[in-house]
Specification:
Chain lengths: 444, 368
C-alpha cells in the first residue's frame, strides 16, 4: 500500500508536482532557478491555453483522457518547488495544489540548513527533496512509460506542423519542453530515458515526404509497437523463461514487490508446480504486503518476514527471485533498497539469485554505488508503515536539529552477488550484460 | 528462622514469575535483580559446609534459568557468584588464591599460563578458623563465612552498576573526528559509549531502525538530544550506506563461548555488509553477558521469537490465516564477523572469549 498523500491525483499516472532532480550546488541553483522558472512560466501559459482548448477539443480515446487529467492538474501544480540546498525541510505534499506563486514564495522562505551542519549531514544532501507521490518499482515503470509516450503521442496527434517546417525537426523541439516537464516531476530514470531516446530516433527517421497525417500515424504505430514488444511481450517471455527455473519443492524468496516476479510466480503456480514463497519486506514502502495478498489469494503457500529476520530463514531458501529498476553494463542491478542485502545473504549461503528484468531497463552507464543516483521516499502517511501495536509517540517522524530521517528508495547490488539475469532475449550472466544491445540487434 | 527462609523463598518466587512473564526488560536489569535475590538467599541461608551453600545457590539458579532460558544474564550472574563464593571459601580455608582441584586438565594448563588474574583480591587475608560440620555449633561455619560472602556479592553488584561507565572509559580512543558510525536498534551500552565519546570528538551516527521493534527511533532520539548529529534510516538501506560508514558499533544480548553472540535482529545483516565492505565491527557489552554456551548449528531453538502481529497485524484480516509469519527477536552473529568486544574489563578479540569464560566461571557451573 503506497503511502500516497491525500492528493486527488491518481498515483500511477502521476508525474504531479515536481521536485527537481539532483540538487545543483547552492550557488548555481539560484542562477538556474531564475531562468528555469521563467521558462516554466512560459510553458505553463502555453499548457494552460492548450488545456483550455483541449477541454472542448477532439477526444482521442483513452490516451487523451488520461493525458488530459494530469495536464490541468499539472498546470496548476507544475512548479517544482525550488529546492534551496536544504533537504532538511521537505516541502509538505499538500502544496501540490497551491498556485505557482505561493509555492515559490514558500520555497524561498524554506529554512537554511541548520548551523551545525556537520559533514555527515552534507553527504546526503544531493538526494534531493522527497517526491510527493510514491511509486512502486516494477509496477509503475511501464505505466509511466505509457504515460510519457501517450503524453507525447497525444501531442503528436494533436500537433500540426507549422508551415515551412518539416515534421521531424519541429516535432522534436515541440516535445522537448514536455520531456523536461516530465523530468522535473521525477528524476530521469533509465527506462524513461530509453523510451524517449527511441521516440526521438523514430521521429528523426520519419520520411520527410510523407503527408503529415500519415507521418503522425506511423509514429503512433511505432510507439504502440514499442510498448507491445518491449514491455508486454517481454514480460510474457520472461515469465516463461524464469518459470522454467522453478522446480517442485522449491522455496523461493522474493523481496518487496516486482510486477515481473509476481507474474512469474503466478504463472508457475498456474502450471501446477508445487513451491512455497517467502516474501521479505521492509520499510519505507512495505510493498511486499501487496504481493503477499495477491499470492495468497492465488493459493500459493507464503511466509512473510521483515528484512532483519532474513538471517534466520535464508538457510531454507532454494532460489531468490527479484526484480530491477535498471541494469547496468557492468552487471550491477539498481533496484529497491534492501535487494542488495538479500542478494548478499543469499550469496553467503550459496543460494542462486535470479533477477527478472526487461531489456528496456538496460543502461549503458556504469554505476558504482547507491549514492550517486538515488531518490528519497515520499513523506506520506508514515504511521501506516509501522505496526499498529507500536505506540505512536515512540516513533520518530520529525527532523530536528541534530536528527534527520532518510529513506533512500534504491540501492545497487554488485554483480558478484547475482547469478543470472532473465531478460526477453535470454538468460544472461551478470558480466555479459553489456551484450544486450547486440542481442537486441540494434542500438538502444 | 523459618520466616527468614520463607522471606528469601518468596523473593525467589517473585523473580521467577517476573522472568517468566518477561516483566524484567534488559539483560542488565535481569542480572541486577538476580544478584539482589541471591544476596537475600545467601544472607538468610543456613549451612554448615560449603557444599550445602553451593547446592542451595545452584538450585535457586536453576529455577531462575528455567523461568527464562533465553535471558542468559541470569544464569551468568549465578555462575559468577558461585565462582566468587568458591574463591572466598578457598582463600579462607587454605590461604592461597588458587582453585582447589589438581585435576590435570587443559583448563588448568590454560589458567596456569595466565599473565594476569582477573579475580579480585581475596577478602580474608588471614586464614579464618573454619570448622565445617561442627556438631556443637552448626552455625559457626556460616557465621564466619557470611560477611566475607556478602562483600563478594557486593563486588558483583558494584561491577554491574558501573558497567556503562567502565565500558565508555576509552570511548574517545575508538572513535576519531568526522567518522560516520552505524548502529542498530537501541543498546544503552552503545548509547553511553557514544555520548561519552561525543564529549571529545565530533562524529555522525546513522541509526538503523530495525523492524519490527523499531528501537532505532529511541536511539536516534536519545543521541540527537545529546547533540550528536544522527540519521535515522530503515534497515533496507544498510547495504546502500555501508560504503560510507567507517565503523559499525552494536550491542549484544549475550556473548557465546566461541566468540559469537546473540544480538538484536538486523545485526547479522549489518555485520555481513560490514564484512563485505571491510568495515570494522565493534561490539560493546558488559562482562555479565559472557555465557558458557555454544550455538554451532543455529537452531531456531536458540533464538527468541516475538509477537508476529507487529510484522503482519490483525488489520490484514484475510491474510492472517493463509500466511506464516516469523518474528525472531535475536540474530546469531558468528565470531568471524566481529572484530572486537569492548567490555567493562577491557577490549578482547572474539578469539580470546574462551579464556575470559574460563577465568570468570567454574567448570562445574556450566550446567546449573
Amino acid at each position: 500500500m503506497a503511502p500516497a498523500p491525500s492528493l486527488p491525483i491518481h498515483p500511477p499516472n502521476g508525474p504531479v508536482n515536481g521536485d527537481a532532480s539532483k540538487q545543483p550546488p547552492q550557488g548555481r541553483s539560484s542562477q538556474k532557478s531564475m531562468t528555469k522558472a521563467e521558462r516554466r512560466e512560459l510553458q505553463e501559459k502555453q499548457r494552460a491555453a492548450k488545456a483550455a482548448a483541449k477541454a472542448g477539443g477532439p477526444v482521442n480515446g483513452a490516451p487523451s483522457k488520461q493525458a488530459a487529467k494530469p495536464t490541468p492538474q499539472a498546470t496548476a501544480a507544475a512548479t517544482p518547488k525550488r529546492p534551496t540546498k536544504s533537504n532538511e525541510a521537505p516541502a509538505p505534499t499538500a502544496s501540490a495544489l497551491r498556485t505557482q506563486t505561493a509555492a515559490r514564495a514558500r520555497a524561498a522562505s524554506v529554512s537554511v540548513p541548520t548551523p551545525a551542519n556537520a559533514r555527515g549531514l552534507r553527504i546526503f544532501s544531493h538526494f534531493g527533496l522527497p517526491k510527493p507521490v510514491s511509486v512502486a518499482k516494477g509496477d509503475i515503470h511501464p505505466t509511466i512509460l505509457r504515460l510519457a509516450l501517450q503524453f507525447s503521442e497525444f501531442k503528436i496527434t494533436d500537433y500540426a506542423t507549422p508551415p515551412n517546417n518539416t515534421l521531424s525537426r519541429h516535432l522534436m523541439t515541440y516535445l522537448s519542453p514536455q520531456i523536461s516537464h516530465l523530468v522535473a516531476a521525477r528524476p530521469m530514470s533509465v527506462t524513461m530515458g530509453n523510451a524517449i531516446r527511441q521516440l526521438k530516433l523514430e521521429i528523426s527517421g520519419s520520411d520527410i515526404d510523407l503527408p503529415e497525417q500519415d507521418a503522425k500515424d506511423a509514429l503512433c504505430q511505432k510507439i504502440d509497437n514499442y510498448i507491445r514488444d518491449r514491455i508486454i511481450i517481454a514480460d510474457q517471455v520472461i515469465e516463461e523463461t524464469a518459470g522454467n527455473k522453478i522446480k517442485d519443492g522449491d522455496v523461493i524468496l522474493t523481496y518487496a514487490r516486482s510486477s515481473v516476479v509476481q507474474k512469474v510466480l503466478l504463472g508457475a503456480h498456474a502450471e501446477g508446480r508445487q513451491f512455497s514463497v517467502i516474501v521479505v519486506d521492509s520499510r519505507p514502502m512495505l510493498e511486499g504486503k501487496r504481493l503477499l495478498s495477491v499470492l495468497a489469494s492465488a493459493g500459493i503457500q507464503c511466509t512473510y518476514i521483515l528484512l532483519p529476520a532474513l538471517g534466520a530463514i535464508i538457510t531454507e531458501v532454494t532460489l531468490v527471485l527479484v526484480g530491477a529498476h535498471s541494469i547496468h553494463s557492468n552487471g550491477a542491478v539498481y533496484s529497491r533498497a534492501g535487494t542488495a542485502l538479500v542478494a548478499m545473504m543469499a550469496k553467503l549461503h550459496s543460494v542462486p539469485v535470479v533477477v527478472c528484468c526487461e531489456t528496456y531497463k538496460y543502461s549503458e552507464t556504469v554505476q558504482l554505488d547507491s549514492f550517486t543516483k538515488n531518490e528519497l521516499a515520499p513523506q506520506g502517511d508514515l504511521f501506516s508503515s509501522f505496526p499498529s501495536v507500536k505506540a505512536r509517540d515512540s516513533l520518530t517522524l520529525e527532523n530536528d536539529e541534530h536528527l534527520e530521517i532518510l529513506n533512500p528508495l534504491y540501492d545497487l547490488t554488485p554483480p558478484n552477488c547475482i547469478t543470472a539475469v532473465v531478460t526477453e532475449v535470454g538468460v544472461i550472466p551478470p558480466n555479459s550484460i553489456g551484450s544486450i544491445p547486440v542481442a537486441l540487434g540494434r542500438l538502444l | 528462622m523459618s520466616a527468614d527462609l520463607h522471606g528469601s523463598q518468596r523473593a525467589v518466587e517473585t523473580l521467577v514469575s517476573k522472568l517468566r512473564r518477561r516483566q524484567v526488560v534488559g539483560s542488565r536489569e535481569a542480572a541486577l535483580e538476580t544478584v539482589l535475590v541471591l544476596r537475600q538467599v545467601v544472607s538468610k541461608a543456613r549451612f554448615s559446609n560449603i557444599d550445602q551453600l553451593i547446592s542451595l545457590i545452584r538450585s535457586v539458579g536453576k529455577r531462575l534459568v528455567e523461568a527464562q532460558p533465553k535471558e542468559h544474564s541470569v544464569g551468568n550472574t549465578v555462575r559468577k557468584l558461585l565462582h566468587h563464593i568458591r574463591e572466598e571459601y578457598n582463600t579462607a580455608m587454605t590461604g592461597n588464591a588458587s582453585s582447589s582441584k589438581t585435576v590435570y586438565s587443559i583448563s588448568n594448563f590454560v589458567l596456569q599460563g595466565q599473565p594476569r588474574k582477573q579475580n579480585v583480591a581475596p577478602k580474608s587475608e588471614a586464614t579464618l578458623t573454619l570448622k565445617e560440620n561442627d556438631p556443637d555449633d552448626p552455625d559457626s561455619f556460616a557465621r564466619v563465612l557470611k560477611p566475607v560472602l556478602m562483600e563478594a556479592i557486593q563486588d558483583v553488584l558494584d561491577e554491574l552498576e558501573t558497567v556503562y561507565d567502565n565500558i565508555s572509559k576509552n570511548a574517545k580512543d575508538h572513535i576519531h573526528s568526522d567518522e560516520i558510525i552505524l548502529t542498530i536498534g537501541h543498546s544503552k551500552t552503545v548509547e553511553t559509549f557514544l555520548k561519552v565519546a561525543a564529549h571529545h570528538r565530533s562524529f555522525t551516527v546513522i541509526v538503523a531502525e530495525t523492524g519490527p521493534s523499531y528501537n532505532g527511533h529511541e536511539m536516534a532520539r536519545a543521541l540527537s538530544s545529546a547533540g550528536i548529529s544522527s540519521f535515522l534510516v530503515p534497515d533496507s538501506s544498510i547495504y546502500a550506506i555501508m560504503s560510507r560508514v567507517n565503523k559499525v558499533i552494536i550491542g549484544a544480548h549475550a556473548i557465546l563461548a566461541n566468540g559469537g553472540m546473540f544480538a538484536i535482529t538486523g545485526s547479522l545483516l549489518a555485520a555481513n555488509a560490514a564484512r563485505v565492505h571491510s568495515t570494522p565491527v565493534v561490539v560493546c557489552a558488559g562482562q555479565f553477558k559472557l555465557t558458557p554456551l555454544w550455538n554451532l548449528y543455529h537452531d531456531f531453538g536458540a533464538l527468541d521469537f516475538a509477537d508476529p502481529s507487529s510484522v503482519l497485524g490483525f488489520e490484514e484480516g484475510n491474510l492472517v490465516d493463509k500466511v506464516d509469519v516469523l518474528n525472531p527477536y535475536y540474530d546469531y552473529v558468528g565470531p568471524e564477523l566481529v572484530d572486537v568486544f569492548i567490555t567493562n574489563d577491557g577490549d578482547h578479540p572474539p578469539s580470546s572469549v574462551y579464556r575470559l569464560i574460563k577465568e570468570t566461571y567454574d567448570d562445574d557451573d556450566h550446567e546449573l
